[in-house]
Amino acid sequence: MDHKILALGGDGIGPEVLDFGLQLIYKIEDIFGINIKIERDLIGGACWDKFQVFCKNETVEKAKNSDAILVGAVGGSKWDSIKIKGTPEEQDGLMRLRKELDTYLGIRPAKVYSGLNDQSPIKEKKLKGTDILVLREMTSGIMFAQPRGNKIENGLRYAFDTAAYREDEIKRFVIAGFDLARKRKNKICSIDKANVMESYKLWRDIVNEVSKNYSDIELNHYYADNCAYQLIMNPSKFDIILGCNFLGDIFSDLVAVFSGGLGLLPSACLCGPPKNFVKGIYEPVHGSAPDIAGTGKANPIGMFLSIAMMFEYSFERKDISTIIEKAIDKLIYKVNLTPDLNGKLSTEEVFLKFIDELNNEARV
Ligand code: NAD
Ligand code: IPM
Ligand code: MN
Questions:
Q1: For ligand 2, atom 11, which residue shows the shortest CA distance?
Q2: Cα–Cα distances in angstroms (integers) from residue 236 to residues 124, 225, 309, in the given order
Q3: Burial of residue 129, with CB atoms counted within 10 A of its CB: 0-12 exposed, 13-18 middle, 19 or more buried
Q4: 121-259 maps to which CATH number?
Q5: Ligand 1 in contact with 269 (CB < 6 A)?
Q6: Global pTM value
Q7: Of ligand 2's atoms, which has the minimum distance to the CA of residue 92?
Q8: Residue nearest to atom 9 of ligand 2 (CA)
Q9: What is the per-residue pLDDT across 104-145, written as a single tens digit (0 to 9) for each?
Q10: Helix, strand or coil for residue 241?
């Protein structure tokens, strides 16, 4: 056995895109003569319905003993509205996995595809040359920091979260970001609200301190609100966008506008000391899309590209990830895809056409 994967479908379209992702992995085993062990388990609402927790202890143990974790998507109104007291790890299965595995580096790329120019509301000439990587801190910040909760105060409902970062939580993430910038265009845009918030003042200080060791990297700080505006006006001016857990979540959906659809975007959450990432959680950026779940319309490309990232980062098989990415480029250029991209094909039909392209690429 060469690699061990824990596969967690989750909810809504999560299990649908995961199933085709696993079929892709079987195909890759055949083509490249490698042996991958896949274990399946529950996460999110599917796990809650059976065990009244969003992620079991034994699933965390399995994840710790795997080389990579592949996730579909979690959530849905039925479970999002459950009010249980506790930490974010107790309230959400994915948050628990990220925290327990300490996968602090979120890598969320958004490419522009020439076959999809009409899909983006941004003009083609503005999109030319756009290729963005959102780096999102994944295991700290306002989504995790304590105290958080809700109570009645003076007869009124009061709910609170804490926007807080410790310097080491920011620093390891920022170092990883600067290292990645050297593999791209040596350019970073760090986003914050340092004009109004203490935790973002620290964020900006740490980014500046780390940048002193990277004189070859062009660094620009943007207030996040201005960055959102500049990004839509001039997307091709940006390369890496470096943000905290909260802003990174928002900006990684925003950049899907340049690609032409949220269903296209992949992600990786990596752990390990900087420069030595091994284990990762791989998942499309999109959610469980309850509005199209069960219709066979889910776009599986974000899942396929997440699998490409898994081969690159956790299995050190850049050759395989490149072949998957090239096959996706050809597929998108040639084929009428799922309805979110204005196509008429089902998830399965897109998968089958993708496998044709993959076979072609593997023969080259
Ligand atoms: P969403 O990403 O699920 O859907 C947003 C829109 O994009 C919807 O119109 C949906 O149909 C479309 N879409 C998303 N993925 C698609 C795909 N692969 N193919 C075609 N269309 C796609 O966001 P939401 O509606 O805000 O959230 C739904 C649920 O998912 C919530 O419970 C939320 O908490 C959860 N969620 C989970 C993750 C995750 O597991 N990583 C990420 C985001 C949201
Ligand atoms: C994401 C999602 C998650 C997040 C939710 C489902 C916990 O939006 O992966 O982008 O907020 O990180
Ligand atoms: Mn999100």
A1: 249
A2: 11, 18, 23
A3: exposed
A4: 3.40.718.10
A5: no
A6: 0.97
A7: 7
A8: 285
A9: 999 999 999 988 988 999 999 999 999 999 999 999 999 999
A10: strand
